[in-house]
From TrEMBL:
This is Catechol-O-methyltransferase domain containing 1. Belongs to the class I-like SAM-binding methyltransferase superfamily. Cation-dependent O-methyltransferase family. One of its GO terms (molecular function) is O-methyltransferase activity. Residues 1-19 form the signal peptide. It comes from Acanthochromis polyacanthus (spiny chromis). GO terms for biological process: methylation. Keywords: Methyltransferase, S-adenosyl-L-methionine, Signal, Transferase. PANTHER family: CATECHOL O-METHYLTRANSFERASE DOMAIN-CONTAINING PROTEIN 1 (PTHR10509:SF93), O-METHYLTRANSFERASE-RELATED (PTHR10509). Coiled coil: none annotated.
Length: 238
């Protein structure tokens, strides 16, 4: 992209993001204090981020600090094979793909084709469309297909961020697919604090609480539960 076009986008981003900057910390892109832009590093991720803010469900997108942290985890463990369970508009899938070498692959699970359609131009623009294998079907079907294809024990990183009721199933399938030393990251494990004494009719909070308690005792993994975003669990396979 030409430099002057980039400059144009940067001004657009500055205007667009200023109103949003109290929502999340945005270290790799924009850091806002008293509504002032302090850092603005223009990159392909920010185009995807900015486009997603226009969607009514943009709160589903991971925060920029979380995406940055997971991308650096991927670099630290030299990951070349990753899975995202719940891609949405592709912001985090793009972040993971950009953190991987040329031979890196992200299997991105998403059932909504409108979200997939939003993601594709951003993957192409960033030059990583060949690194992201979008699977337009239920995530469970994709995970089962990968296992059936003999890929168990070959993945380095899995990010679970789709329908909460299925988290336990996604976790068990991910444990099969991940290699020893690989990382399973699980989003929304604090569920806005509702996992503490979940209401009797709140199935989502109850199932997340049950999963948290299960992982706490799970001898197959080393556990780290972080207060990043809405709660981020890291399970490292022993
Ligand atoms: C919280 S959003 C994912 C956000 C994304 N990881 C990001 O950071 O931008 C959850 C996504 O999972 C998708 N989803 C829900 N149930 C699914 C299923 N059974 N299989 C695959 N995708 C599913 C939804 O359509 C939605 O886009
Ligand atoms: C990752 O790769 C680099 C360069 O090839 C190597 O020095 C490093 O030890 C590797 N790290 C891990 C955790 O495998
Ligand atoms: C997504 O793109 C496909 C292929 O171009 C098209 O058939 C489909 O209607 C699109 N879906 C939505 C919801 O726009």
């Amino acid at each position: 992209m030409a430099a002057d076009i980039k400059m144009f986008f940067c001004v657009g981003l500055a205007v667009g993001l200023t109103a949003k900057c109290h929502r999340t910390a945005q270290p790799h892109a924009v850091y806002c204090q008293d509504n002032k832009m302090i850092y603005c590093s223009l990159n392909y991720l920010m185009f995807a981020f900015q486009r997603t803010l226009q969607d009514q469900w943009s709160r589903m997108m991971v925060s920029t600090d979380q995406a940055q942290f997971m991308a650096n985890l991927i670099r630290l463990i030299n990951a070349t094979k990753a899975i995202e369970v719940g891609m949405y508009t592709g912001y985090n899938a793009l972040s993971m793909a950009l953190a991987m070498p040329e031979n890196g692959r992200v299997v991105a699970c998403e059932i909504e084709d409108s979200y997939i359609n939003i993601s594709k131009p951003f993957f192409k623009e960033a030059g990583v469309e060949n690194k992201i294998d979008i699977q337009h079907q239920t995530a469970m079907k994709t995970l089962n297909e990968l296992i059936a294809a003999g890929e168990a024990g070959t993945y380095d990183f899995v990010f679970i961020d789709a329908d909460k009721g299925n988290y336990d199933n996604y976790y068990e399938k991910s444990l099969e697919l991940i290699r020893k030393g690989g990382v399973i990251a699980i989003d929304n494990v604090l569920w806005s604090g509702k996992v503490v004494n979940p209401a009797p009719d709140d199935q989502t909070s109850q199932s997340l609480d049950a999963l948290n308690k299960k992982l706490h005792k799970d001898q197959r993994i080393d556990l780290s539960m972080l207060t990043v975003g809405d709660g981020l669990t890291l399970a490292i396979k022993r």
